[in-house]
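Hi C.,

You asked whether I'd gotten around to modeling the 132-residue construct. I have! Everything is below, sequence then structure, no commentary in between.
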Amino acid sequence: MSAGPYLQVSKDLEILEVEPTDDLLRRVIDLGNGSSKQKLGFLPDQGFSDRARKGTLLAATQGGRLLGYVLYDLPGRDVTIRHLCVSPDARGQGIAKRLIEAVAPRHKHRQRIDLWCRDDYGLAGMWTALGF
């Protein structure tokens, strides 16, 4: 497995920038289109690939295992999170928080971080816990 630049956030957990030619991209797409798809909504493979090319797709891994990812856009002077996905078997371990925390230092010149999420998904508590 190859991977782009990373920020090591703990001894075991790595936050990697997903490269467009990396096999990690395929695993991110599979996770996004898996059981979480009903809350993430439809995003074609090209949407994932485009973010990887732009450097706005980060993945959390541990020992080569994909734990989750954050996919975001950079409109104007903001950062807008479009997908935040944690593997069902890795939930409750702080992976979402670490992914969100990895975004801000990469874009210090941006004014704020927004998110895009439907109200009817029942995720308001999670977003509030993450500081939104």
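If it helps when you're writing up: The radius of gyration is 14 Å.

Thanks,
B.
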